[in-house]
């Protein structure tokens, strides 16, 4: 059998993104012209607050905190998880104007049909959209997979997105056995990750561990005989790279409470899997080289043995997905 060259999939990917974008735009127009809202924004907010007040975290969240998280929901889908059994909830940190990245993810590894058999769900985490907010509103109404709060969407506030994800999961999806925090330029090999989680049943935070010697963040040494530079005391506790790390579901409420009582750091992976994890006794994290430490994916078949791959463009999402679907990697 002749196997198409990778460039074929790249072209196909660009075509699919264009077609999807046009199709979604037409659906947005349909929603605006023909659809009537079923509930008012006020009733949705009341419903959300009612659910929140029933959470055991409500009382704790009202106490004076070092790092309070008092932002309001702009977009929320409180019944996204319902009472369904969920093995893996994937929280994707995204930006309001990264529509093409989200569409590529929805059409590839996060396609609903592909995730059902793995009892996996995907949500996108956004901050305030400003000039993109109208488009975000339309996208959320159509796709119903966006959680958004009213803090400024910026690189400095990535930590707030992760804390938002912890808070939302603790309230609205407490049954999730595992949570994967990742970004919108990441390819996630869901079948491989799901199989590993089912087999290992880990109760540790897991990812690519990084440290912070004088010369900056580096992956942990891979051999048995680390060099002196590798052994230097880090400036922060060991932490897992934000490109993708696993949080066991039972730790989510504890991590959220710890986040409220830990001095804010703009480096979300250090904050969450380093300092907050240490505060609740869930430290150190477990290293697994199948999680990306930030290396760029250059070949589709790299992802056949990796859980996460970094710096993946929307076109590359399609190319990797098609390649893995064809099962042509050795």
From TrEMBL:
Database matches in Gene3D superfamilies: 3.90.550.50
Enzyme class: transferase
Keywords: Glycoprotein, Glycosyltransferase, Golgi apparatus, Membrane, Signal-anchor, Transferase, Transmembrane, Transmembrane helix
Name of the protein this chain belongs to: Hexosyltransferase
BP GO annotations: protein O-linked glycosylation
Record bears the keyword Protein biosynthesis: no
Localization terms from the record: Golgi apparatus membrane
Entry membrane topology: Single-pass type II membrane protein
GO molecular function: hexosyltransferase activity
Residues that span the membrane, as ranges: 15-33
Annotated EC: 2.4.1.-
Family, similarity comment: Belongs to the glycosyltransferase 31 family.
Cellular component per GO, a single term: Golgi membrane
InterPro entries: Glyco_trans_31
Domain of life, per lineage: Eukaryota
Organism (species): Tigriopus californicus
């Amino acid at each position: 059998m002749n196997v198409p060259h990778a460039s074929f999939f790249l072209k196909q990917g660009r075509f699919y993104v264009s077609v999807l974008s046009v199709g979604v735009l037409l659906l947005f127009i349909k929603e605006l012209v023909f659809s009537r809202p079923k509930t008012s924004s006020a009733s949705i907010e009341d419903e959300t607050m009612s659910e929140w007040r029933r959470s055991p975290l409500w009382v704790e969240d009202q106490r004076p905190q070092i790092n309070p998280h008092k932002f309001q929901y702009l977009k929320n889908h409180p019944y996204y998880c319902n009472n369904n059994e969920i093995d893996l909830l994937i929280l994707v940190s995204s930006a309001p104007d990264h529509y093409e990245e989200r569409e590529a993810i929805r059409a590839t590894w996060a396609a609903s049909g592909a995730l059902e058999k793995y009892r996996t769900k995907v949500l996108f985490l956004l901050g305030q959209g400003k000039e993109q907010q109208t488009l975000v509103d339309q996208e959320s109404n159509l796709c119903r997979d966006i959680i958004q709060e009213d803090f400024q969407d910026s690189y400095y506030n990535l930590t707030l997105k992760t804390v938002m994800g912890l808070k939302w999961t603790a309230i609205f999806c407490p049954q999730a056995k595992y949570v994967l925090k990742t970004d919108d330029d990441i390819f996630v090999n869901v079948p491989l990750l799901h199989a590993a989680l089912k087999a290992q049943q880990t109760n540790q935070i897991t990812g690519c561990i990084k440290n912070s010697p004088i010369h900056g963040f580096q992956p942990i040494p891979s051999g048995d005989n680390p060099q002196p530079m590798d052994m230097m005391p880090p400036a922060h506790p060991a932490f897992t790279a934000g490109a993708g790390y696993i949080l066991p579901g039972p730790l989510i409420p504890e991590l959220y409470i710890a986040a409220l009582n830990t001095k804010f750091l703009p480096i979300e992976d250090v904050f969450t899997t380093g300092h907050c994890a240490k505060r609740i006794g869930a430290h150190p994290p477990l290293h697994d080289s199948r999680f990306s430490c930030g290396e760029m994916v250059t070949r589709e078949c790299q992802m056949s043995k990796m859980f996460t791959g970094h710096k993946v463009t929307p076109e590359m999402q399609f190319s990797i997905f098609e390649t893995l679907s064809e099962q042509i990697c050795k």
